[in-house]
């Protein structure tokens, strides 16, 4: 990935930060965007401390002008764009779908689905103009199987999967591959806070995975790096499930 430019939307923490660091280790120049400018700059600083090149910028994925500014930063700072991980998302409150407020639904959709569409809208032309590359949108197993009490999030992530397939079809002969990664539970600060606030859910959450554990952010980042690399040059429109066995959990016989 030397001489390539990578962009990570939502790169200020968790899986996004792990992905930005992974791109840098592979030799890419990295633009890190996050709703928290301090967090984005912290990720960029870590890359530079390790000898890489990076810039951190503030961006809200629900705002078209923010995404346009980030894409412009890729072009002006590093001369183009080749690889993207669209990682940011916003969940809705945990409640039955009939009890969701319209604003709660809209807030989730605004970042998690509309935000990915806006990213693709402004990223794809620059990737094509830069000679081609790859986009990986972070979806979720919730978007494949649905999720009780997270109907908005599941619907949004399902939309990300089909939106990505549409983009893959449109750009397949234009030099840009578009895929998704569908994680299960990830051991991030947000997940740890959630499990700490609801300790009764910890064992249930771990046990939902056939492997009995959560993913490390680096394990999801590895999947993103693979799909952006030349090793995945014939893969587009694909959903790579990285879930520790959530989708096959019903087949597991506990000892």
From TrEMBL:
> Which GO MF terms are attached to this record?
glucose 1-dehydrogenase [NAD(P)+] activity
Q: Show the InterPro entries listed in the entry.
A: NAD(P)-bd_dom_sf, Sc_DH/Rdtase_CS, SDR_fam
Assigned keywords, A-Z:
Oxidoreductase
Q: What is its EC number?
A: 1.1.1.47
Q: Which family does it belong to?
A: Belongs to the short-chain dehydrogenases/reductases (SDR) family.
Q: Which NCBIfam families match?
A: PRK07231.1
Check the record and name the PANTHER family matching this protein. Answer: DEHYDROGENASES, SHORT CHAIN, ESTRADIOL 17-BETA-DEHYDROGENASE 8-RELATED
Protein's name according to its UniProt entry: Glucose 1-dehydrogenase
Its source organism is Seongchinamella sediminis
């Amino acid at each position: 990935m030397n001489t390539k430019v990578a962009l990570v939307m939502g790169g200020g923490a968790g899986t996004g930060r792990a992905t930005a660091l992974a791109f840098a280790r592979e030799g890419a120049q990295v633009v890190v965007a996050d709703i928290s400018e301090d967090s984005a700059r912290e990720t960029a600083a870590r890359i530079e401390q390790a000898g890489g090149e990076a810039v951190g910028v503030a961006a809200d994925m629900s705002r078209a002008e923010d995404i346009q500014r980030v894409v412009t930063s890729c072009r002006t700072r590093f001369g183009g764009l080749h690889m993207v991980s669209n990682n940011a998302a916003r969940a809705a409150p945990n409640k039955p779908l009939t009890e969701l407020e319209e604003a709660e639904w809209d807030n989730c959709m605004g970042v998690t689905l509309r935000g990915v569409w806006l990213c693709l809208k402004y990223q794809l032309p620059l990737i094509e103009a830069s000679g081609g590359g790859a986009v990986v949108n972070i979806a979720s197993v919730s978007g494949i199987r649905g999720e009780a009490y997270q109907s908005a999030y599941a619907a949004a992530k399902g939309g990300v999967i089909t939106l990505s397939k549409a983009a893959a079809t449109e750009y397949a002969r234009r030099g840009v591959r578009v895929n998704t990664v569908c994680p299960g539970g990830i051991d991030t600060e947000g997940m740890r806070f959630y499990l700490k606030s609801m300790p009764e859910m910890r064992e249930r959450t771990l046990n939902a995975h056939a492997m009995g554990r959560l993913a490390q952010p680096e394990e999801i980042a590895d999947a993103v790096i693979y799909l952006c690399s030349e090793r995945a040059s014939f893969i587009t429109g694909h959903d790579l499930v990285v879930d520790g066995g959530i989708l096959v959990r019903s087949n597991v016989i506990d000892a």
